[in-house]
Design brief:
about 200 residues, alpha+beta, Porin, eight-stranded antiparallel barrel, two-stranded antiparallel sheet
């Protein structure tokens, strides 16, 4: 009797485990396979920068303000075309020179996500290039090497940062009082510059 009872219990447990396994969703053989989804377009993201407004206001003691936003699109799980733009206004002061700043800027480029992950993973490490231009009394252009990340906090809402190394393409021969000492979207007129953005972002 004891042996029959234990065999019956074992059979019931085995049957329950088989039924549970049958109800589970089928696992993907390799969920980390890059380009796991054949869809080309995989959503877009709108980003609002929170770092530069604070940084420029503190650095200039309230004399200069700069705001920017960005949009990127996710393609085939790896590529992120991006468009970024903003506006700066106020006073720029350098040595004994004071200039009015009032102009917008645009950047365009492409980021690459080197992480091997599934389409369902919401996070990304981004490395890419940008071309930028400002629209003040004198137009300037530059290139950027950008690196950063974006991390999902809750469904549809992200936070992240981008660090930039900037190289100015337009070198002015005019006196310093004629060329802008501050370039919207670039910063102080130096051949080499840096930038940092800390984003709040929404995915659609």
């Amino acid at each position: 009797m004891g042996i029959r009872r234990w065999l019956l219990i074992a059979g019931l447990i085995a049957g329950w485990m088989s039924a549970f396994a049958a109800d589970k969703p089928r696992q993907v053989d390799n969920p980390l396979q890059p380009y796991s989804d054949t869809a080309v377009y995989q959503g877009c993201m709108v980003k609002i920068d929170a770092f530069m407004p604070v940084y420029e206001a503190v650095r200039s003691r309230g004399a200069l303000q700069s705001y920017e936003a960005a949009v990127n699109v996710r393609l085939i799980n790896k590529l992120y075309p991006a468009i970024e733009g903003g506006y700066a206004f106020g006073k720029a002061i350098q040595d004994s020179i004071t200039q009015q700043v009032n102009g917008g800027f645009l950047r365009a480029g492409l980021d690459f996500n080197p992480l091997k992950k599934s389409i369902h993973s919401p996070h990304a490490l981004l490395i890419g290039l940008r071309i930028g231009g400002s629209f003040q009394q004198v137009c300037d252009a530059w290139g950027e090497l950008a690196a950063g990340c974006q991390v999902q906090i809750v469904s549809g809402f992200y936070m992240g940062w981008t660090f930039r190394i900037k190289l100015l393409f337009t070198h002015r021969e005019a006196p310093a009082t004629m060329a802008p000492i501050y370039i919207s979207g670039y910063g102080d007129r130096n051949n080499l510059n840096w930038g940092l953005n800390y984003y709040f972002a929404w995915r659609f």
